[in-house]
Amino acid sequence: MSAADPIGVFDSGVGGLSVLHEIRRALPGEDLLYVADSAHAPYGDKSQQFIEARSIAITEFLVSRNAKAIVVACNTATGAAITTLRSRFSMPIIAMEPAVKPAVANTRSGVIGVLATSRTLASDNFVKLFARYGTDVEILGQACPGLVEQVEAGDLSGDKTRLLLEQYVIPLLEQKADTIVLGCTHYPFLAPLIQNIAGPGVAVIDSAAAVARQLRRRLEVAGLLADAAKAGGESFWTSGSLGKAQSLVSELWQAEVAVCALPSLRKRLAMTESDSVVGAGHALDIFGNN
Ligand code: DGL
Fold first, then answer.
1. 74 an active-site residue?
2. Does the domain spanning 100-206 belong to CATH 3.40.50.1860?
3. Same fold, 7-96+209-287 and 100-206
4. Potential cystine with 198: which of 108, 202, 211, 212 (Cβ 3.0-4.6 Å)?
5. Whose CA is closest to 61, among 35, 94, 24?
6. How many Å lie between the centroid of ligand 1 and the Cα of residue 80?
7. DSSP one-letter code for 82
8. What is the mean pLDDT of each run of 10 residues along the chain (290 residues)?
9. What's this model's pTM, rounded to 2 decimal places?
């Protein structure tokens, strides 16, 4: 493993591109590999075993491409698979953590809302955050079925997306939330609409920049930071429809990019399913919550 090797990033779909943007901003010299598992999005309605098996198989694919570090750019996969990934792979593995800590520091009303998948809200990770911060402020978890699908369909501002968001955001406002945490990496692409619904007095925050900073710290400590003098490149794979991914990834990445078909991971999946490790606690480490 060397500093010149790339960083592997994956998500259940295109949502992790919101994290990839921040990684690119923080680490301009790094080569970045991105896998969108769009054929299986949303992960939120899959079993923990399935998400673990996909996460292991995608990480192995990224390792086969010489990834020196992995970013699990998906809150749901973090909750379901991070312990297993860290026990199986020795390179730095950076995970998502909903931005509850900064939200608690920001709130004036003492009420924060967290938009996430129901699987994330039920995860050990979130239960720990709730236990840690829920005594100082009121934390309202709001599951958002259907939102990941809207982003995967490229509908960031249409009527159906707005209607869904109103249904999820307005009850939080009625309960006096003045800070809304985006606890799913797909949601930052809906931030303009969320801000529009919530109004200017409500802060809308996510953890992508904190994840990128954490990745930078981990690479620095491991002596694996690439030479920042050269510009890094990006490579993209999808398990979903290539034509769809081509235009959606280009739109969300704000540049015309080529997306490749993710090779079939089925053989590896069958193997991991038979020896899958169940149970996934999560070390909270993005905002220094250890
Ligand atoms: N981007 C994923 C996350 O952060 C979406 C989850 C899903 O596919 O259900 O949770």
1. yes
2. yes
3. yes
4. 202
5. 35
6. 11
7. H
8. 95 98 97 97 92 97 97 96 96 96 97 96 91 93 96 97 98 98 98 98 97 97 92 97 96 97 72 42 44
9. 0.92
